[in-house]
User: Which sequence fits this backbone?
């Protein structure tokens, strides 16, 4: 099950479970659309994987399977994605 991490690893902006701005790779590294499309070129700086829109979990399912509250932030910022 997806963790639905609460923030962008680059800029630390909030990304609630209902956000259409969240982008993830297959390892669930999470970025906002601005960072993913801009500085990262839709490539995860951690694994080199593709960054795609994160699916949204229906509200009723969030009550039983809540989103993660653990923030992952890299204060040094994010390097451009790997080719």
Assistant:
């Amino acid at each position: 099950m997806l963790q639905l991490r609460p923030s962008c690893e680059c800029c630390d902006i909030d990304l609630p479970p209902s956000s259409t701005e969240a982008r993830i790779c297959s390892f669930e590294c999470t970025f906002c659309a601005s960072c993913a499309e801009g500085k990262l070129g839709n490539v995860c700086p951690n694994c080199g994987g593709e960054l795609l829109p994160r699916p949204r979990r229906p509200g009723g399912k969030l009550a039983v399977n809540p989103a993660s509250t653990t923030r992952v932030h890299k204060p040094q910022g994010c390097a451009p994605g790997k080719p």
The longest strand covers residues 22-24. The two ends are 28 Å apart (CA to CA). The first helix runs from residue 33 to 37. DSSP finds two helices and three strands in the chain.
